[in-house]
Design a protein that fits this description.
alpha+beta, SH3 type barrels, Alpha-Beta Plaits, 4 domains, five-stranded antiparallel beta sheet, four-stranded antiparallel beta sheet, 16 strands, about 50% helix
């Protein structure tokens, strides 16, 4: 008998053609054998089967008696390879098409069990005596089971975690001091990626024995995680004033990664001897950006307190014993007044005011800084302040239906909001800080008192306001320069009359 005749006979007896067909189907099936490790394992069994089959055929062609052992080896390798290829087709070809998803460990366990059953069955039919092996394996199993109980416990724990789906891949969890995102649940461990770009391998047995917090999970709700940002304010300010200033600023900020529902809120947590302990509670939508979002919220808190003239509490250990000289507060106040007067004089809108009027308005200015991204005024809102921008840049935006257009940029030094204070109209546009903005707010009553005492100021303000108002309307309607000039003249006359009527100027 020639070698090729013997090889053909042995291949038919071992169902090699069926094995190769199943392997080809596994490789052609979409997503089959998605991991290189599984491909290498399958290739090992297939190559082992073919090599053993070739050796068996060569020995039988020479009528050598050792061919039976190699036939058994070929059949065992072929059976294990067929099981692996069949499971690949099932788990990565048929089940995904039926929209059925099973944990990876289920496939591993099923492949392992079926491979053992197939190997034992094929070896028995080939005439191998397994009784001695089974008797010996019972002792070996007892020894291994005692020595490898932690490994077995981790494997069983990994199987339990994947089957009950208590922890899934992409979940954010906290176990003991480890917090991060689950990226893999394997046989032995669960891999967790932390926010510090670390991957921590936690034994599965430890996860079952320790309390595990799944962050941001609530049945029937999107993944949100409530965060706390703490700050202290002394008792010179009423709690209701602090809560209102901070809460309104954070809710109106529209910060990225901060949920609008539930809305952020500010609460008084505790009362110390000299200050109150406050906290802003918000719901984080991107659990990977906790510190970055906390920083954004703290920035909003700081600027909101600055605008409300509320000082953060100073720790008692930082208070000096030396008494401040009596003239120091006066010098400080004088410097602040000069800074405010300089800001008023830097804006052409106020260039017709007298020195006494500058002094009066400077005393009425209130420091109101904004950080980049904050809204200074909102379109359609009722006006209570005139804003004097000392440093920074802001964008003027108009909303028309669902469309928001930027129509102008405000670059310091400049002023805005005067239209509403002089005519009583609501805000015509939304102004948002592009950079950090240093500005002052002027109370409506102080500004209107100055204009009411000097009626001639109404004409000057009407001219300045008409230029800005006509500019906004021209941008909205797309008018050319000549049409915009005619529009400005009409607007100026209308504004002058509206100012006189609103301020009751004769």
């Amino acid at each position: 008998m020639s070698f090729f005749e013997a090889l053909w006979l042995e291949a038919r007896a071992a169902n090699t053609l069926w094995l190769l067909a199943m392997c080809a189907l596994a490789l052609l099936t979409r997503r089959a054998v998605p991991h290189p490790h599984r491909l290498r394992v399958l290739s090992f069994w297939v190559v082992g089967h073919l090599v053993a089959l070739g050796v068996d055929a060569a020995l039988r062609a020479r009528e050598h008696s050792a061919g039976n052992e190699f036939r058994t080896v070929a059949w065992v390798f072929g059976a294990v390879a067929f099981v692996g290829a069949s499971m690949s087709v099932l788990f990565h070809g048929l089940l995904p098409r039926a929209r059925v998803s099973l944990p990876r460990i289920v496939e591993d366990v099923l492949v392992g069990l079926l491979s053992v059953v197939a190997a034992v069955t094929v070896a028995s039919r080939a005439g191998a005596n397994l009784s001695g092996i089974i008797a010996t394996s019972a002792v070996i199993t007892a020894v291994l089971g005692f020595s490898l109980q932690d490994v077995i416990g981790n494997v069983a724990s990994g199987l339990a975690l994947q089957l009950d789906t208590s922890i899934d891949v992409d979940d954010w969890i906290k176990v003991n001091d480890v917090s991060g995102r689950v990226v893999e649940v394997s046989w032995r461990y669960t891999a967790i990626e932390t926010r510090n770009w670390e991957t921590i391998l936690v034994p599965n047995l430890q996860l079952l024995r320790s309390p595990v917090t799944v962050l941001g999970r609530r049945v029937g709700q999107p993944r949100l995680w409530r965060r706390w940002v703490h700050f202290h304010v002394d008792w010179h300010h009423q709690p209701s004033e602090v809560i209102e200033a901070v809460q309104s600023a954070v809710r109106g900020a529209e910060l990225p990664r901060v949920a609008n529902d539930p809305p952020p809120n500010c609460v008084l947590l505790d009362m110390a001897d000299t200050y109150g302990r406050y906290a802003v509670r918000y719901w984080l939508t991107d659990l990977a950006a906790d510190d970055l979002t906390d920083s954004d919220v703290r920035t909003r808190i700081y600027f909101a307190l600055q605008r409300a003239d509320i000082k953060l509490a100073v720790p008692s250990r930082s208070v000096t014993v030396a008494q401040e000289a009596a003239e120091v507060p006066q010098v400080k106040t004088a410097r602040q007044t000069e800074r405010r007067k300089a800001a008023l004089k830097a804006v052409g809108f106020f260039n017709t005011l007298e020195e006494s009027e500058f002094d009066e308005l400077a005393c009425s200015l209130r420091y109101a800084p904004f950080t980049a991204g904050e809204v200074l005024t909102r379109q359609g809102a009722e006006a209570h302040w005139l804003y004097l921008v000392e440093e920074g840049t802001a964008a003027v935006q108009i909303r028309e239906g669902d469309t928001v257009r930027e129509v102008a940029k405000l670059v310091a030094p400049t002023v805005f909001g005067e239209m509403s204070l002089l005519t009583g109209a609501r805000r015509a546009a939304t102004v948002t800080a592009v950079t950090d903005v240093e500005c002052f707010r002027l109370d409506s009553s102080a500004f209107q008192r100055v204009v009411a005492r000097r009626p001639e100021l109404a004409a000057h303000f009407a001219e300045v306001l008409s230029m800005r108002s006509a500019g906004l309307q021209s941008a909205r309607e797309g008018l050319d320069a000549e049409a915009a000039q005619r529009r400005q003249e009409v607007v100026e006359k209308d504004l002058f009359q509206r100012i006189r009527t609103f301020l009751k100027i004769e």
